[in-house]
Here is the input.
Amino acid sequence: MSYATISIPAPGILAAYKDPLELSHAVGLYLITWTIVTAFFLFVVVRRNLALTAMLSTIFITLVILSISQYSLAGMPM
Here is the structure.
């Protein structure tokens, strides 16, 4: 839900970033943050529950791919 909030006009997140490059870097940083959080969750649950391990692995891979694609759209930040 928080990722979808970026596109909603009411919070003004898209309006705050005039430069598309800056917006891409901000969204990329957001995705990397959630990738790290998901990696911690995955590390904790990996030996306890197979279903959660499969779900978190899929989410982790998805977030890694989204992060890479977000940064490849605008180039890597300095």
Remarks:
- The chain has one domain: 2-74.
- Residues 42 and 56 are 6 Å apart (CA to CA).
- DSSP finds four helices and no strands in the chain.
